[in-house]
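Contributing new records

If you add data, match the layout below exactly. Sequence lines come first and carry their own label; structure lines follow with theirs. Keep one chain per record. Anything else will be rejected by the validation script.
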Amino acid sequence: MDRAALLEAFALVEAVQGEDAAAALAAVDEALARVDDVDARFVLETARTAHAVVRGGTPDIPRLLELAPDDTATAVALGLQALAAGNVVGLLSSTSHAIARLDMAPPGPLRCLGLVIVAAGLNTLRLWELVDELYSRAVFDAGAAQDARQDEAVAINRILIGLEHGVTLLECDDVPAAEARLRATAALVPDALAVGLRPLWHRNALAAADLVALLLDEPLSAPVDEHVAELSAAGDVEVLPLLLAAAALHSWRRDRDPEPAHQLVVETSATSSAHTFPAWVRAVVLSESIGGDAMEAVRHHSRLLAQALWASRSAVLAAARTQIDTERRRLEHERLARAVNTDPLTGLHNRRRFDDWLDRPGGGPVALLLLDLDGFKAINDQHGHGVGDEVLRRLGLLLRTAVRPGDLAVRQGGDEFALVLRDDDLVPDAVLTRAAEVAKSVAGEDWSSVSPGLSVEVSIGAALATGDASGPALYSAADAALYRAKRESRAPVLEVL
């Protein structure tokens, strides 16, 4: 792993979403031209895809999924697929797949990036409870993720979702729950500042703490006008509308001044708290300052709307949890099934899986190659059992790369292996050619890097059935061919049924 290249790639993931995105995207292209590390290249491609998602481009999610080197990387790509979905069904489907994979991923910066991306997708549906759970998990990766700059994103995003959650509870008139959520959010600010946030996020965190203070009628750390000026200059659209609304509500409750609330800009077409909270504040101030049935009706309507949105959000949250749990169970079932049928040393199918194949009804064309390591006992005796295990592992890798879709690579046990070849065009010459290629790749491997002076060869016996030969019949023929190969020939031997 090229750590320097990987950290550069993670920094660019953040940069392409920042103020100078065009320069960051050019840096991604330059890095891709010189970086060879597979993991770093995937993160760079993630940066390119994230830029397209954030900037309204056309992200090539299928290509990113194809480039993913492991399940953790696949989860990152699925998270971006969720953000680009454009509909609730697609978003929940992709996020549930991603979360189930992240559950089994090892701690580290890539898992942390995946958690942050998936959380961003769920945040578009205002599923704050799930989002905070994901961010809480990402905190555990802070040590590994710190150099990858994900700790900043986690810290500020936990504050932002806490604000949204808290003011939405206020809109629903659930004051105790709102106050508890807002206090918990303010408590996150000191740790976030200690991380070393970039300038805009630093201003957001400071303003968030005073926003909570305004709503709870507590002392401020700085004048509201100072926060407003800084956030306005930075073009902030997340904290500033909430801060102005909180300041207007505070002015009314403390000084009975309705003018700040009257001046609030309310965009009723949007659903985020940056728009719904100012509308709620105006309704509260108008109903209390003007009075009368009409104004009370306005406030009542605002409350009912907030509660309806909350009920809808809660239903989506329940659906999301159900879908995530279903995907977790599905992946766990697949993992257990793989464990039952997989050899732990080589990663190939095991004898159990091979026996299942042998018991299948006959039907060609199909070829079976039986492989036996030559002199494996001598390898263990001369080089040690640790070297012997590494030989078996490498042979497993060679066989996995030798098979095609539809083929089957098996470790029967010990130093005995098998390949099942299934192809409508199988003929004797083709089978012998495949067997010879496998034998050549084994002999040509750099075994001296495992242990000085080590060389490894295999004997191969093959059987080809073009009709309805049973599995046991095919195995007997291949076993007889292997016997001949080991004792009469150094080349693969073929029996045709």
